[in-house]
């Protein structure tokens, strides 16, 4: 047998197979899965009505993703991103209106015919639809830049939902080779946004691996377990579950899925992000499970830890 020396690009691709460093979002289904999970978690949850509303929004996102003419990623931006090891669909910096304007129109149209919207949501949607273009772009930039203090908090979840449709639609059209490995591992390699939470997956090449999920484009990127997703410290990492959850396990009460979520805290930077475990519940979905485990946020706040980043479907002035 002749031994052959692998070329660099072959080694690189082997490495990718071994590590499964990225999970780009599929062309369809991201928002439908989120809607289903939100609905499942709404029952008996203190935040139930809000989760049910966001399930309606996620359904509308799935519908909008199917009809909005989201343009393909810019080929030149992909080349430049690879050259400079930058995110190819960078969210901050003002570009990308083309990415989400169509998505917003489609989302508003889908929500207009959605049954069961509370009056407050309808009013917020009317205000969003009536925003003049410059105010709309300013609001979008505030959300993309994480500047909560400049955001109109009532319309923020709906506008963010439109931005997600735009960026997720573009990210789903990328190939793994279009996405360079960044020097910074704590932001999305596709769009540069912070992760909402992380997920430990099961099955195939993802078995047992932990991925951070982007709050904007739903791309997941690999990060080893027991490591702070905010400052990358590997020392001083602890895991926390909500107290009522511990009690539920002890009494053998039927699980509502919340036990599949833990908060991963760091003694170095005193922040935390949640980890969702598929081995505990196959249906975990980072955005939905993060939103549905507010009791854990209360616990972590009391213990003196700050959220490393917010939930894209919940905007509060003093969230962090
Ligand atoms: Zn992203
Ligand atoms: Zn840290």
Keywords:
single chain; alpha+beta; FdhE-like fold; 42% helix; globular
Bound molecules: zinc ion
Instruction: Return the average pLDDT rounded to an integer.
Output: 89
How is the main sheet built? 8 strands, mixed
Helix % is: 40-55%
Distance between the amino and carboxyl termini: 60 Å
The CATH H-level homologous superfamily of the largest domain: FdhE-like domain
Query: Can you tell me the CATH class of the largest domain?
Result: Alpha Beta
- Level-2 CATH architecture of the largest domain: Alpha-Beta Complex
Query: Strand content of the residues, in percent?
Result: 5-15%
Poorly predicted regions are 245-253
CA gyration radius, whole angstroms: 20 Å
Number of domains: 2
Shape: globular
Q: Would you write up a description of this structure?
A:
It contains 11 helices and 8 strands. The protein has 320 residues and is an alpha+beta fold. The chain has 2 domains: 17-178, FdhE-like fold; 195-307, FdhE-like fold (Alpha-Beta Complex), CATH 3.90.1670.10. A hairpin with a 5-residue loop joins strand 3 and strand 4 (220-222). Helix 2 runs antiparallel to helix 3 (48-67) and helix 7 (133-144) packs across helix 8 (156-171). The protein is globular. The protein starts with 7 loop residues before the first helix and ends in a 13-residue tail after the last strand. Mean pLDDT is 89; it is low at 245-253. One zinc ion binds at residues 228, 230-231, 233, 266, 268-269, 271.
